[in-house]
Amino acid sequence: MKNRVWQIISILIPVIAIMIIGCGKNGSNPTQTNMSGNMQGKVTSQTDGSAISGASIQTNPATSLVFSDQSGNFSINGIAVGSYTVKALKTGYVNDSLNVSVTSGKTTVVNFQLAEPDTIPAVVTLLSPGNDSSNVPIPPTLSWIPSSGASSYSLQVSIHSSFDTLIVNGSGLTKTSYPIGGLSLSTTYYWRVSATNQYGTSNWSAPSWSFTTSNIYGIPCPGIPTVTYEGKVYNTVQIGSQCWLRENLDVGTMIYNLSNQTNNNQIEKYCYNNNPANCDTYGGLYQWDEAMQYVNTEKAQGICPSGWHIPTLSEISTLRASIHNDGNSLKDVSQGSGIGTGTNTSGFSALLAGSGSNSGFSSIGDNTSFWGSTQYDISTALALYLTSYDGSIAFSYFNKTSAFSVRCVKN
Question: Among 2, 49, 266, 348, which is most exposed with the fewest C-beta within 10 angstroms?
Fold first, then answer.
């Protein structure tokens, strides 16, 4: 019996060995390692590109669950090769998903930009002029801090805190500042702003702010708001880089009947229609030689105060450029009509003082001319010309015997 068992065993051992060897050749290797890759990326805001931390990163098929760090970065390592749907989720944002492929031994970059869902802009914060500001120069520029997510703004300005009557009712504004013309002197105005985007409009800035305008147009020259000259006080106005007197010169002794002014060591002036009251209002009228005090050098002091001079062609061109060639902005609000009505947004406060010539006085209320120190030839010199009927600014050369106004500019 024992011999029979050992015979059977001796027969089975080779067979089993052959089967084991065959399985080893034809079956899979149980120790072989699956190939893998990595994934990394960043989560940011679609609105302003800022990093979003704490966003969960999920994959399908599922891998490790990770979260973006303070810089918005995340990474998942040791991912099996294959195709995945990757999703970024964060409370308060619209989820975003991307389809990606992971390659063996490579790092796949996956970046997300999350949008805020159906969010109207934040309430606007006003900036300038400060609330309850006084003596605000005309024209003021209102400004506010940009509101996150805003695509446009609306602005209301009123003389009443209830905003029942509107001076400005603007909408669709894309800038965060707004210059306002046509305001009155020594007047309190109220203003407020709202922000709009595709999802809606914020509440008005609250509380509304107010400011009170100055009692003069324009901004006085820094450090020299007034100049006292020959017993009369003149105001100054800063226009761009230039400092001007705000009023026409009224200096000298009045002479009658437009007889020629002469080089007699005494300043002489004409008053329109030989009426001294017109000099009080409009300033004197001067022939070019008298205005220049009988020199023909550009930028001469002439009859201007010390430290001031008769403007040159270049300086008048600079003035025109500073106010964007808008003659109405040079004219006082009481001057002109229709499309020629003065706005005085520059503060220059020009009055339509008329002129004089050998044939008499003319055109008060209709036009005005200001002498420049640039001459064309022995008999003609430059003047700036404004009219009542449009907003043009003209330069031309006139006979030096014409009697025009004089406006001085700071050296």
Answer: 2
